[in-house]
Design a protein that fits this description.
The protein is an alpha+beta fold. It has 9 helices and 18 strands. The structure holds uracil.
């Protein structure tokens, strides 16, 4: 599988990525609706015109059938109710190294996960959830807002597996405490499972967790008096970092995208919310 790596020793001298605005807008800041639809990857511009004429497209909640209609990049454009991004959806798995920030832009100019893409991805992808600056491992990036929303929603049950290296051996009863739940300032946090990775080295612990809360793993160990000196995410859902050295990334295969969508569909937030009301 083809992977990508940016030369990490080289200072990042690439020009800033052109924003959606720069790439697509005419002088009045608007783009043609058929172009916006075509960029979403669902149809060619000609086919997009047919969809518009047939009344399948809404802009900010209003059906638009006028050919030549123009939209702002921030407008809510939908095809049969499904929100379009104005770009082809792309899905990337990265093996994040240390000292890289999980954000699209860092005002302090530190290296971000987007810098690691080395300008090779023209779509405006962003990370799904966060890894701390010094946490390494599997990170998903996409421009698919719907999948991001589903995978990062607090009700999401997407499993993540981490290997934590601690400052001292973890006591057996503390392994159990991870699973039984640990009181944190924002509520009780549970590991789905916790194991010693190596029976001869009890400072290395594998933790499976589905919470996506900020610093969750470090905070759980800190609450029991341990310091995490290394944290590596080895799995996000079914994605791992096999054949993906640190700092490298690759596009997901069609099969993986399908699987990811299926997983996201297993926690349809809107349906869950509806179910709660009944
Ligand atoms: N938990 C943490 O403490 N840090 C991470 O980066 C991810 C999970």
């Amino acid at each position: 599988m083809r992977t990508h790596k940016q030369n990490s020793s080289k200072k990042n001298t690439k020009p800033a990525r052109k924003s959606f605005k720069q790439q697509n807008q005419s002088g009045d800041g608007l783009i043609r609706l058929n172009k916006f639809i075509a960029h979403s990857g669902i149809a060619s511009r000609r086919k997009a015109d047919e969809l518009i004429k047939a009344g399948f497209i809404t802009v900010n909640g209003q059906k638009i059938t006028e050919l030549g209609y123009k939209v702002r990049p921030t407008d809510d454009v939908r095809f049969k109710g499904k929100k379009l991004t104005g770009e082809k959806p792309v899905y990337i798995v990265m093996n994040k190294p240390k000292d890289v920030i999980t954000t699209v832009y860092d005002p302090q100019g530190r290296r971000t996960v987007i810098d690691l893409l080395g300008g090779k991805v023209k779509e405006r992808v962003y990370p799904v959830g966060r890894l701390d600056r010094n946490t390494t491992g599997v990170l998903l990036l996409t421009n698919d807002g719907e999948i991001t929303r589903k995978l990062t929603h607090p009700s999401s049950k997407v499993p993540k597996v981490y290997i934590a290296t601690l400052n001292r051996p973890l006591k057996k009863r503390d392994i159990q405490r991870l699973v039984d739940g640990i009181e944190l300032e924002d509520g009780k946090a549970f590991a789905d499972s916790a194991v010693y990775v190596d029976p001869d080295d009890k400072t290395k612990v594998g933790v499976e967790i589905h919470s996506g809360k900020y610093h969750i793993v470090r905070r759980m160990f800190a609450a029991m008096g341990y310091k995490v000196i290394k944290l590596d995410r080895i799995k996000f859902a079914f994605l791992d970092k096999k054949d993906l050295p640190r700092g490298q990334w690759r596009f997901l295969t069609q099969k993986e995208i399908g699987f990811l969508k299926m997983i996201a569909g297993q926690q349809p937030v809107s349906l869950k919310e509806k179910a709660k009301k009944h």
